[in-house]
Design brief:
By secondary structure, the chain is of the alpha+beta class. Helices cover 24% and strands 25% of the residues. Helix 8 runs parallel beside helix 15 and helix 11 (464-476) runs parallel beside helix 12 (503-525). The protein is globular, with a radius of gyration of 27 Å. The structure holds dioxothiomolybdenum(VI) ion. Residues 203, 233-235, 238, 341-343, 345, 499-500, 698 line the site of dioxothiomolybdenum(VI) ion. Dioxothiomolybdenum(VI) ion (MOS) is lined by residues 203, 233-235, 238, 341-343, 345, 499-500, 698.
């Protein structure tokens, strides 16, 4: 597209950061270059539970180029996060206890990466090992009930289930999955006096700054975190991990800038993962398919000394109408690495169990699964009775079914086939959670007529640079190439992390507010200016267009440049902020919705399962950029296909060791696994924020695995209640 023609908001323009990225000019954390940069390498435990009995660093310290070796024996005081469910896992190297396999036990700092790597092999660690508690069903595992305070209840599920003419009670399991962004995480830390600069793979520079300051015991103003670009995150960048803290500690200790880059294998133990789950769903219904009782219980794994916010059963509180609902979450403490968010945390697993159970109910009733969902559409929040800010799930059902050709489905399992290929159609609905945190932004218009928009939030590859540029261009009446978006720097106005599908709503609202404030500042400047046609005009009586502020009554106005020139200003700036909307009012802000329809082909003899096509109809409110939003849905769907059929982090129960920490052994979907993915956006703008947006970043994931699992049942007649679904499950 030509950047000289003003782009309409919503239009799928190319990413504004496309050239800088594809041209190799985007600075990632690992690119940060400092004179005298030293390199840190982790030493990790080879047991999953127990104690360090001896740690000998003499040989490592004597190795060429080694500057220091830091372990629990000499690490400076690191402060614990007060809140166990915070973004900050317990500090690294805190004591001699081992809580998971691959736990960091030392960090070696040397002149070069090779020297540090070699010296890390020379650190001698002896352990007293205990038997690990490493699987979800382990009888000795400690359970935390209602860990997030999100359990919910209305009516009496037990009584309603007993009275229900039709009942489905099933247990489902989902495997642990590991975030595998293309770019392994790395940190470069540099102290200048008491001031720390950190280049980090984080999805939240403001968050990381606060976490580092708290851990190191320094004021937040003394820390600057930079993350202008990130090679993907999928949620791994939502917590401040030990390697980031250790890079800062090491840099201070050696008095030089330090780089700490994780290997791919270390990514499996050091930056979180999607915890595995066991879930039971019990549904009671009438013969005509009205749900009268819905109970969803979830058990998910957690590390020994950590908290992580990830409600799994919560999605069943708001997905379908039912007078009786109970949801319960339990976290199970295991000797595994600390989990973290991984794309659609909680909902990814919870939606899978709920939507498969609904499919089982439909089969039980002899009813079309789509019709069952139509009949149980929730007109209001089933537990609180609140009105939805907007919920066009029904439009998703109808549009998706039409696009897919759902009507061609023969309801009988194993009835649709072509030669040795069994064909299955499956669908699922998704009601995704709402999340939006406080955010600030600053908007500046310069004397040359260009604008700069600044916010500490970052773009993890989703398109935030682009949509915020488009939004500011529209709000300020400027061409897209007249606006420069600056992000990923904690010294800019504070922003929440890029996560929970919440940044576009938060930052978009802040940019909206800042833009309104900026127009008001321009009007303030000309309030008594006899030469200005805008003199004394109120800010609600103007609009911005073509680089000008114009009166809505008579269309007279003047250019930003003219006002700034006449008043001798280089630029004019304004800040704006957005607060997290309350969720206790009569109207509850709603997240996005989607209906997904999958066709799978299963080889009758070999059991090979292939997704043949997948259709998504999504209600994401107002879409700011059709192309980047679509890419989010498509990319998420690819992750969902991986979750359904390929991805599994295998922990050996007797050793607690992750058996497949490589991209050769941990299978992610590749091009050959991915069919045509159709996405269409339907439904209304959402009134919760002034831009009408809903989150869409994670909507590709939930619903995808369930639609595929339901299609596998339809193709084969075999109900597999565990992810990933494997060849041997359907033979
Ligand atoms: Mo997403 S798991 O909120 O990066």
């Amino acid at each position: 597209m030509s950047t000289t023609t003003p782009a309409r908001l919503g239009e799928g323009i190319d990413r504004v950061d496309a050239r800088v990225k594809t041209g190799g000019r985007a600075e990632y954390a690992t690119d940060a270059a400092y004179p005298g940069l030293a390199h840190a390498v982790l030493v990790q435990s080879t047991i999953a539970a127990g104690r360090i009995t001896a740690l000998d660093t003499a040989a490592a310290e004597a190795a060429p180029g080694v500057l220091t070796v830091i372990s629990h024996q000499n690490v400076p005081v690191l402060h614990e996060a007060p809140d166990r469910s915070s973004s900050l896992p317990p500090p690294p190297l805190r004591d001699d206890r081992i809580r998971h396999h691959g736990q960091t036990v030392a960090v070696v700092v040397a002149d070069t990466f090779e020297q540090a790597t070699e010296a890390a092999r020379l650190v001698r660690v002896e352990y007293a090992a205990d038997a690990p508690v490493a699987d979800l069903d382990h009888p000795d595992a400690e359970h935390d009930q209602d860990p997030f305070g999100t359990d919910g209840e209305t009516g009496d599920v037990d009584k309603a289930l007993e009275a229900a003419p039709v009942r489905v009670e099933r247990t489902y399991r989902t495997a642990a999955n590991t975030n595998n962004p293309m770019g392994p995480f790395a940190t470069v830390a540099c102290w200048e006096g008491d001031h720390l600069t950190v280049h980090d793979c984080t999805q939240g520079p403001s968050r990381t700054r606060a976490d580092l300051a708290a851990t190191l015991g320094v004021p937040p103003e003394a820390v600057r975190v930079l993350a202008p670009y990130l090679g993907g995150g999928f949620g791994a960048g939502l917590r401040t991990w030990g390697h980031t803290v250790l890079a800062a500690v090491a840099a201070r200790q050696v008095g030089r800038p330090v780089k700490l880059a994780l290997t791919r294998k270390q990514m499996f133990t050091s930056v979180g993962h999607r915890p595995d789950t066991k879930q039971t769903v019990r549904i009671g219904a009438t013969r005509d398919g009205r749900i009268t009782a819905l109970e969803h219980r979830a058990w998910q794994s957690l590390s020994m000394a950590d908290g992580n916010y990830e409600p799994v059963s919560h999605t069943s509180q708001s997905s379908y109408a039912s007078p009786n609902i109970t949801t319960r979450d339990v976290q199970v403490r295991l000797n595994v690495p600390a989990p973290g968010s991984m794309r659609a945390p909680g909902d990814a697993q919870g939606n899978y169990a709920l939507e498969c159970a609904l499919d089982e109910l439909a089969h039980e009733l002899g009813m079309d699964p789509l019709e069952l969902r139509r009949r149980n559409y929730a007109d209001e929040h089933p537990i609180t009775g609140q009105q939805w800010s907007s919920n066009d799930l029904r439009a998703c059902y109808e549009t998706g079914a039409e696009m897919f050709g759902w009507a061609r489905r023969d309801p009988e399992p194993r009835s649709m086939r072509r030669g040795r290929t069994l064909i299955g159609y499956g669908m699922a609905g998704t009601s995704f959670f709402f999340y939006q945190a406080d955010c600030a932004a600053r908007v500046t218009v310069r004397a040359d007529g260009g604008a700069v928009v600044e916010s500490a939030g970052m773009d993890l590859g989703t398109g935030t640079y682009t949509v915020m540029t488009q939004l500011a261009a529209e709000l300020l009446g400027l061409p897209v190439d007249g606006v420069r978006m600056v992000m990923g720097d904690s010294s800019l106005p504070a922003a929440p992390s890029a996560g929970g599908s919440g940044l576009t709503g938060a930052m978009g609202t802040a940019v909206h507010t800042a833009s309104r404030h900026l127009l008001r500042s321009f009007l303030d400047l000309v309030r008594d200016d006899a030469e200005s046609p805008l003199r004394g005009v109120a800010s609600d009586a103007v609009r911005a267009e073509d680089g000008r502020i114009v009166r809505t009554d008579d269309g007279r106005g003047e250019a930003y440049t003219a006002i700034l020139a006449r008043h001798g200003r280089d630029a004019l700036s304004a800040e704006g902020s957005a607060e997290s909307p309350g969720q206790d009012g009569a109207v509850v802000p709603t997240g996005p919705y989607a209906a997904k329809f999958a066709e799978v082909h299963v080889d009758r003899d070999l059991g090979v399962i292939r997704v043949a096509r997948l259709v998504t109809a999504a209600h994401c409110g107002r879409v700011l950029n059709e192309k980047t939003a679509r890419s989010q849905l498509v990319g998420g769907t690819v992750g969902g296909i991986g979750m359904a059929l390929l991805e599994e982090t295998v922990t050996e129960p007797h050793t607690g060791r992750i058996a497949n920490p490589t991209l050769g052994d941990y299978l992610v979907a590749v091009n050959a696994d991915i069919p045509r993915l159709d996405v269409r956006f339907v439904g209304r703008p959402d009134p919760t924020n002034p831009n009408g947006t809903k989150g869409c970043g994670e909507l590709g994931i939930p619903g995808t695995a369930a639609a595929i699992a339901n299609a596998v049942f339809h193709a084969t007649g075999v109900r597999v209640r565990r992810l990933p679904i494997r060849i041997e499950d359907v033979l």
